[in-house]
Specification:
InterPro entries: Put_sensory_transdc_reg_YbjN. This is YbjN domain-containing protein. A hairpin with a 4-residue loop joins strand 9 and strand 10. The chain has a 6-stranded antiparallel β-sheet with strand order 1-2-3-4-5-6. Helices cover 41% and strands 25% of the residues. The N and C termini lie far apart (89 Å). With 397 residues, the protein is an alpha+beta fold. The protein has 3 domains: 151 residues, no CATH class; 90 residues; 135 residues, Yope Regulator, Chain: A, CATH 3.30.1460.70.
């Protein structure tokens, strides 16, 4: 079956109205008609409004933009300018009325413009006859906005014959995924319970707005939605956990070093940063690694010299003596190549990785490497024994 979508650019004003409402003038941008063979199956309208007009739309839930069926606002709040863009889809019950008068997208655009001037109270121009799909504003820092459940589950998908289970499942999953993605602070249980509640509310509203002949269908659909979300509980948990891990661990690490004015490079394909530190006793490389799945951070200071093979036993003894007295972190030696490093780490599962935690972990690490570096070098250069080197560091007087 051939499906075609044609767009027509309007760039003109349309006046929408409802008998009980004051007129609503919008700037129509494009109108798109989708046809299967010769039958119109979908009509979408994209338009722009000022922030003031959007606030009215928001408060009155025009275009069926009910708060319950939106994803969280991403990218910050809406600003005074530029205009806010809304994409909406026409109620499928009104498509036959449209089809009686038009065949193409440009004819549909002209017809709506004519109705806007002559019959602004026509059902096709009611702000409740359109379902908002996306609301967005292009700002200097990027795009902000939200989607609605109608972007995933079209009103036309619910009919007297019921709704396809897979279609409902896919729609609810995609909506819940975006909800979780835009609501990073929410726990998995919050996302699940809130989303189920939202779906129930919107479909209850829908049931009140349709004919009695389809109430049974909507009632059955509500039960189906509850079943879908029970099945998706585990998937939503994994989505939320992954987003929380990536957002709260690696991003927290990057934000910390940016705030501290440390120069760093991210290792390609890894959640790891490479840094350099200049201490009192030497200069060395550091690595800050996020273990996102386990919600852990590890920080390493890499000793600027390797332990020669013949000195690795002495260096190992030095490290064992040093580690015995350490409260935070520990020295490690790779017997294969002689690499020496100091490690500090933290596990924040179920919590947030704060700047204060990172700061303590990082500066405790570099302090220890700087303090014990002269002893490591002295042992390698045969100046003192491991025991003497530790004594000089821990009891200098």
């Amino acid at each position: 079956m051939r499906i075609k979508t044609k767009h027509f650019h309007l760039n003109s004003e349309l006046t929408l109205s409802e008998s009980s409402e004051s007129p609503l003038t919008i700037c129509a941008v494009t109108l798109a008609l989708t046809k299967e063979v010769h039958k119109i199956t979908e009509c979408r309208l994209t338009f722009q409004v000022s922030l003031e007009l959007y606030q009215r739309i928001d408060s009155e839930a025009l275009f069926n933009l009910k708060p319950e069926i939106r994803t969280p606002l991403s990218g910050g709040s809406f600003q005074l300018s530029p205009d806010i863009q809304i994409e909406a889809i026409l109620d499928s019950d009104l498509l036959p009325q449209l089809a009686k008068n038009v065949k193409t997208s440009n004819q549909a655009a002209a017809y709506l413009q004519k109705l806007s001037k002559e019959q602004p109270n026509h059902p096709l121009l009611s702000p409740y006859s359109w379902y908002g799909l996306q609301v967005k504003q292009q700002q200097e820092k990027g795009e902000t906005g939200y989607s609605t459940v109608w972007a995933y589950l079209k009103p036309s998908d619910i009919t007297q014959d019921g709704i396809d289970g897979k279609k409902l499942n896919d729609a609810m999953f995609d909506f819940a995924k975006e909800w979780a993605n835009n609501n990073q602070s929410a726990t998995s249980e919050d996302v699940i319970s809130q989303t189920v509640e939202n779906m129930t509310q919107i479909f209850t509203e829908l049931m009140n707005n349709i004919s009695e002949s389809t109430e049974k269908v909507i009632s059955e659909t509500l039960e189906e939605i509850a079943t879908v979300f029970e099945e998706l509980t585990e998937d939503i948990y994994e989505i939320t956990e992954e987003i929380t891990n990536e957002g709260n661990v690696f991003e927290a690490i990057v934000n910390f070093f940016q705030a501290e004015d440390w120069q760093f490079q991210q290792i390609s394909g890894e959640e790891t940063l490479r840094l350099t530190f200049q201490g009192k006793n030497g200069k060395w490389n550091c690595y800050a690694k996020a273990r996102v799945q386990k919600q852990q951070m590890v920080f390493y200071s890499i000793c600027p010299i390797l332990a020669p093979e013949m000195k690795r036993s002495e260096v190992s003894e030095f490290m064992t003596r040093a580690n015995y007295g350490l409260i935070i972190g520990n020295f490690e030696l790779d017997f294969a190549d002689g690499e020496i490093r100091f490690k500090t780490s933290i596990d924040v599962e179920g919590d947030n990785l704060t700047s204060a935690l990172i700061k303590h972990l990082v500066y405790a690490n570099i302090t220890m490497m700087d303090e014990y570096l002269p002893g490591i070098m002295a042992v390698i250069e045969n100046k003192v024994s491991p025991a003497e080197a530790i004594a000089q560091i821990e009891s200098p007087n």
